[in-house]
Amino acid sequence: MKRFAGCLAVIVFFSFAAVSFSQVAPSAESADTGDLGLTAGDIERKINSLFARIDGGLSRAAGELSQKGIEDPETRTILGDLYKKVPYVINCAALDASGKISAVEPKDYASVEGSDVSEQEHVIKLHETKEPVFSDTFLTIEGFNAVNFGYPVFSTGKELAGSVSALIRSEAMLAGTIAPIANKNGVEVWVMQTDGLVLYDQDREEIGKNVFTDPLYKPFTDFLSIAERISKEKTGSGSYEGLAAGLERKTTKDASWVTVGLYDNEWRVVVVKEQS
Questions:
Q1: CA of 234: how far to CAs of 143, 230, 261, in Å?
Q2: How far apart are CA 262 and CA 55, in angstroms?
Q3: Which residues have a Cβ under 8 Å from the Cβ of 270 and sit 6 or more positions away?
Q4: What pLDDT score was predicted for residue 33?
Q5: CA–CA separation, 152 vs 131, rounded Å?
Q6: What pLDDT does residue 249 have?
Q7: What's the CA gap between 267 and 58, in Å, rounded?
Q8: What pLDDT score was predicted for residue 244?
Q9: I want to staple 61 with a disulfide (CB 3.0 to 4.6 A). Which of 82, 135, 206, 252 is the partner?
């Protein structure tokens, strides 16, 4: 997405330059939304397949740690194997029952061992529910934004002994998954959390902005209304009229969105193309 008359465009989910939302049809179907839906479905399957690999790796590691124990010398080997099997992973960690990091792989991140992360929202939720968790984007103790996939580890006595986690940079994972499909089909794609935070966009300056809270978006009530619809509806499509890049001509674009997710969390994936 580009800038709107000198400022950042408030058009995150439509990913186009300098548009006006005076004529938006959030529920309208067009001849192109079917093709967009097919592309969105391809991306949905790719991302959910990736999530399935993450789930499978964490489940296996949690099972092994349940048998060995979090503090067993083989924990590092288990984490190392998980690190090799999970795509786009930054590091894998074992947390004890108190929420402290007992071990982490690769060794480049050994400095975080012993850190207490018990106050992180996803760790609290895992301990409360004793179920796997998929966090929203957060600032890690390593100093960058990422998402965390966590899986509970139980003792042989069925007590919560801790957890195993995989830390992933969502932008890298989404770019690697989406870009080949988007380029092949000649479309634009963006992804957001249901709270409005943009996780991925081909215009990187939009990544990390929240469409519902950033003051740049507040004047555009039509956009905020449609963004609210996307945040609440798992699938949908619509069309809109706006200005093309350069502010020299009007154009109409179509959008179609789907939902991807794992455990207790979801992302919205929106595919956009200018009408011919």
A1: 32, 7, 11
A2: 8
A3: 13, 14, 15, 40, 189, 190, 191, 192, 230, 255, 256, 257
A4: 60
A5: 6
A6: 41
A7: 20
A8: 35
A9: 82
Contact status, residue 266 vs residue 251, Cβ threshold 8 Å: no
pLDDT at 229: 83
Q: Hey, what domains does the chain have and what are their CATH numbers?
A: 3-47+171-274 (3.30.450), 56-168 (3.30.450.20)
For residue 94, the cross-strand partners are 103, 164
Handedness of CA 224, 225, 228, 233 (dihedral sign): negative
DSSP of 61-110: HHHHHHHH-TTSTTHHHHHHHHHHHSTTEEEEEEEETTSBEEEEESGGGG
Residues whose CB falls within 8 Å of the CB of residue 137, separated by 6 or more in sequence, listed in order? 145, 146, 147, 170, 193, 197, 199
pTM to 2 decimals?
0.82
Identify residue 17 by its one-letter amino acid code.
Answer: A
pLDDT at position 24, please? 36
Q: With both helix axes pointing from N to C terminus, report the angle between 75-85 and 33-68 in degrees, rounded to the nearest 10.
A: 170
Q: Do residues 150 and 123 make contact, with C-beta atoms less than 8 angstroms apart?
A: yes
